[in-house]
Write a structure and sequence with these properties.
There is one protein chain. The chain is mainly alpha-helical. The chain has helices at residues 2-20, 43-57, 73-89, 91-116, 133-139, 156-163, 181-189, 200-206, 211-233, 240-258, 300-309, 318-323, and strands at 122-125, 128-131, 167-171, 174-178, 270-273. Strand 3 and strand 4 form a beta hairpin. The protein is elongated. The chain starts with a helix and ends in a 9-residue tail after the last helix.
């Protein structure tokens, strides 16, 4: 509620500036005090439409990663507020972040299916799937890889879930840290952990968003776009705030499409138990900060957010290492 009120107060100067820049073209139509029965728009009508659209395309559209261990509600809220501000100021950063997550999720899905799943080349027979002769011939030459007794073929949703911190390693019923897909694949191959058996439906059940909620947000954006097109066709004035809102909404729709299969607002990861001894476990990916890779000494803490935001490299910040979670946008 505080964020919505702040957005209202922030947008008022922009709308007032737009009113004075309409070159006396029906400026009085923005205020309906003189003609209550006229089909006109007030200042608060414009603010309400723009703020609700910005809220739909930023706060509700952002798909955050799973929180780390012992993270409080305040830290989670502030990280999401940071992502919302980044989406309003530089929405292209959100698009680059979503793009990296999308292709990383696809790569992780393919890697797990190739390692533990059935071969893709199959023919449909009377008794089910029948392997092709080429697959049988190639199978005699491939090195044998231990396959889990139970493996459900991964989808892109599984890949997103893995990269957002969906698998938490436990040692003697105590959480140790988040497993990235590379570490999970390595430990399953070495038989230190069992292959997580979780279906796409179970992952979606943990998600706080579904197709209906996402569709409603997209309808809000589409309705706002139709309103602007109608006003342009009728030669009616359009404020600068509405044009800026349309630009942000259009860019956010791209990120929304890339995140369509990503679970939203998941708070509890899937538990993976360690079967070996504690001495056999090395350092996990998100266990220690790696800002030394920046190579600028005391300036590392100031430079790494900008490098991460530009997509050049992703670093594990001290904040992320403290809670042993997947770094968010900018390495936070």
């Amino acid at each position: 509620m505080t964020l919505l009120l702040g957005a209202f107060l922030f947008c008022v100067p922009f709308v007032c500036a737009s009113v004075s820049s309409l070159n006396d073209t029906n400026t009085h139509t923005l205020y309906a005090s003189e003609c209550p029965s006229c089909n006109t728009r007030t200042l608060w009508d414009i603010l309400l439409t723009c703020v609700s659209t910005l809220f739909a395309c930023t706060w509700t559209a952002i798909h955050t990663n799973i929180p780390g261990m012992d993270e409080g509600r305040v830290a989670i809220t502030f990280r999401r507020l940071f992502l919302t501000v980044a989406a309003l100021i530089a929405p292209e950063l959100i698009i680059s972040w979503a793009t990296r997550q999308f292709f990383s999720a696809r790569a992780a899905t393919k890697e797990f299916n190739d390692a533990f799943g059935a071969p893709l080349g199959r023919a449909r027979g009377r008794h089910g799937d029948v392997p092709l002769l080429s697959d049988v011939a190639e199978g005699n030459e491939r090195p044998s890889t231990p396959k889990p007794a139970k493996f459900r073929r991964w989808t892109v949703t599984h890949g997103f879930f893995a990269w957002m911190g969906g698998f938490m390693l436990y040692i003697k019923d105590e959480p140790r840290g988040t497993l990235d897909p590379d570490k999970l694949l390595q430990f399953v191959r070495e038989e230190f952990v069992d292959m997580p058996v979780i279906s796409q439906a179970e992952i979606k059940d943990r998600s706080k968003g579904d197709g209906l909620s996402k569709g409603i947000s997209l309808l809000q954006l589409a309705w706002f776009f139709v309103q602007l097109i109608a006003r342009y066709a009728q030669n009616l004035p359009i404020t600068l705030l509405e044009i800026d809102t349309l630009a942000v909404a259009a860019l956010t729709c791209v990120a929304y499409g890339l995140w369509w299969k990503k679970p939203k607002d998941v708070e509890c990861p899937y538990t993976v138990h360690w079967k070996g001894t504690a001495d056999q476990l090395g350092q996990l990916t998100y266990e220690e900060p790696d800002l030394d890779r920046v190579g600028l000494g005391c300036l590392n803490s100031l430079i790494y957010p900008f490098i991460s935001l530009m997509g050049m490299e992703v670093f594990v910040s001290p904040r992320a290492a403290h809670s042993r979670r997947v770094p968010s946008l900018g390495g936070y």
